[in-house]
Amino acid sequence: MAKEKKGVRLDHISKIYEDPKTKKPFYAVKDVNLDMKPGEFVTLLGPSGCGKTTILRMIAGFESPDEGEIYIGGEAVNDLTPNKRDTAMVFQSYALLPHINVFDNVAYGLKLRKFPKDVIREKVLNILKLVEMDGMEARMTNQLSGGQQQRVALARALVLEPGVLLFDEPLSNLDAKLRVTMRTEIRKIQQKVGITAVYVTHDQSEAMAISDNIIIMSRGHMEQMGSPREVYYKPASKFVADFIGEANFIPVKLEKKHDGKADIDVFGAKLTVLDYSKAEEGGDATLVIRPEAVKLADTGQIGGEVSLSTFMGAYQYYRLLVGGQEVQITDYNPVNRKIYEVGEKAFLDFDPSGVYIL
Fold this sequence. Notes:
Layout: E1 8-18, E2 25-36, E3 41-45, H1 52-60, E4 67-72, E5 75-76, E6 87-90, H2 102-112, H3 117-130, H4 146-158, E7 164-168, H5 176-193, E8 196-201, H6 204-210, E9 213-218, E10 221-226, H7 228-233, H8 238-243, E11 248-258, E12 261-266, E13 269-274, E14 284-289, E15 294-297, E16 303-311, E17 315-322, E18 325-332, E19 345-350, E20 355-357
Parallel strand pairs: 3-8, 3-9, 6-7, 7-8
Antiparallel strand pairs: 1-2, 1-4, 4-5, 9-10, 11-12, 11-14, 12-13, 14-20, 15-19, 16-17, 16-19, 17-18
Helix pairs in contact: 2-3, 2-4, 3-4, 4-5
């Protein structure tokens, strides 16, 4: 669909705003570097106010960077207006025109560009078929479900055949089940078309499901960029580990490093784990344990008391009080396993390769 796959490069991009209360300038985005390959799906992920939407708007041309340069397909675009940047955006609100039908909503951008009527019809019908909305051309947008409106918004952006497609939290207005369906559809269509995509969300499961690479943002800074597996299993900081999925953070003593591993003391037990830590031998560190990486057992080195036991269908959710700290445990497919009840004694059972230190 896209005439040319275009990469996106941000070269030391910063955006400065004035605080409305103090009237002092502050960095909404500071010194962000990004080199995005053509055809790649990259998600900007982070809490509200972290700068992710500001970055997207600067790529689109709705905001101008105060420092640095933006390149699309190798071309510097800081001075180009949004309509000159070979990008298209899918908005959170869909921004559909309520007084015209589905066909005319999708055709709107093509009409502005003065395409011939027969070309417009062919392009619109083809793109509606791609997003599985063919046969609904005459419907008014207020007669559509939320998911159908999202498909129309996606079709309207794709029909322009942009080099880069931008998404501003496009699924946040949908219910939870429909969000899962639509994120799968967006990823499928993006891969089929082969278009470069930049996606903004605060939903970590959404980012994990659709992205080639995820950029974790915090207070205007890039905390980490990597594949979903990299940011989940090798977080660069406690912030990343806490923001992507659930995690237990347990203070430990790092006793010795050897062969890419580390010997640690945790709750008085001696363990060997994979070493991603910058901490020095003999110093304090933080052990990160994902809830799904640990189970409860009748025996072991680290014991405690069950403080919470909740059946969640696909898994049993526990909290074990150990040394004054609660450890979260997600025991998947518990149908044929022992269920520990509140007040029972139990031990933590985990594979040392499934945990890591920061």
